[in-house]
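I am still learning, so would you mind making up any protein sequence you like and the tokens describing how it folds?
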Amino acid sequence: MDGNCGTGRTRQASAQVSRWDWSQIKTLAYGVLELKPSEFWNMTYGEFLWMLRARAERVEESMELAAWSVRWAMAPHCKNVPSIDEMLGRKPDVPRLSREDRRKTLKHAREGFRIFLAKGKN
């Protein structure tokens, strides 16, 4: 016998479980997810994580809807309305170019395209 009383857990796994912040986990379960104690203690770890992810997605969606509403309300009154990503504190995937940089990029692309077409005609 390994002293685990038939649980199948090793001492190391048992030690890992005891390191969890149970007060924070219970706060999430009873507060954020509004679970009853019996519902919480009868669910698996995977189910708990699944519910947390679903809740996080709902919160993110509601924050994004609120940001869109604010953006539309600001648009007639501001010259530079922040993007949704800026309002939500997200880092944009692609850096925004200034108007002048966009013009330069388009001009360069047009010139390159003209050279490409000219080579194709020869």
Q: What stands out?
A: Confidence is low (pLDDT under 50) at residues 1-7. The chain is about 65% helix and 0% strand.
